[in-house]
């Protein structure tokens, strides 16, 4: 496995990983598929200030992870929200752990202080990954999202870098 910085050229592969989560699960609160053009814009915009990584196996993108601003107010500038998605069929192979390990290291090197992971619940796999990476649960919001005609809870896990 190789982990590298994402480029706009990875947008198609990222969409192929992400859109099934959008269309088939409550893991993402987006409700419509993201186009390759939109994803390329997201990668380009966010990569200016925060790391966005992809994991490749045999030159195929099988996962990605990135950090984004936690909130927009200036006092939050040293805090980020982290995200990781793994391609279907590649779960439980250490890809998420490898991506998060590199992402968290890069965040610390860049001077960020706090990482937050938001998880739509229940999601035992994501909870286990975050806790294995040193995150601790700090909040649980009941029924804050609605998707597929059901209410969804969201928990937040935090790690001081």
Features:
globular; Aminopeptidase; 37% strand; 4 helices; alpha+beta; 161 residues; single chain; seven-stranded mixed β-sheet; 31% helix
Descriptive overview:
With 161 residues, the protein is of the alpha+beta class. The chain has one domain: Aminopeptidase. It contains 4 helices and 7 strands, in the order E-H-H-E-E-E-H-E-H-E-E. Strands 1-2-3-4-5-7-6 form a 7-stranded mixed beta sheet, sandwiched between helices. The radius of gyration is 15 Å and the shape is globular. The two termini are 25 Å apart. The mean pLDDT is 97.
Mean pLDDT: 97
Helix/strand-derived category reads: alpha+beta
- SSE string, helices as H and strands as E: EHHEEEHEHEE
Indicate the radius of gyration in whole angstroms: 15 Å
Number of domains: 1
Give the strand line-up of the largest sheet: 1-2-3-4-5-7-6
State the shape.
Answer: globular
């Amino acid at each position: 496995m190789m982990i590298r910085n994402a480029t706009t050229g990875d947008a198609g592969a990222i969409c192929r990983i992400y859109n099934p989560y959008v269309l088939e699960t409550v893991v993402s609160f987006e409700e419509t598929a993201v186009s390759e053009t939109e994803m390329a814009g997201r990668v380009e915009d966010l990569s200016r200030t925060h790391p966005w990584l992809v994991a490749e196996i045999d030159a195929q993108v099988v996962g990605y992870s990135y950090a984004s601003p936690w909130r927009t107010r200036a006092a939050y500038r040293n805090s980020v929200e982290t995200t990781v998605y793994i391609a279907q069929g590649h779960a439980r192979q250490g890809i998420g752990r490898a991506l998060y390990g590199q992402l968290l290291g890069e965040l610390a090197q860049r001077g960020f202080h706090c990482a937050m992971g938001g998880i739509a619940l229940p999601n035992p796999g994501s909870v286990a990954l975050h806790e294995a990476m040193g995150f601790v649960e700090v909040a649980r919001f009941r029924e804050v999202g609605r998707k597929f005609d059901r209410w969804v809870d969201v928990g937040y896990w935090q790690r001081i870098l």
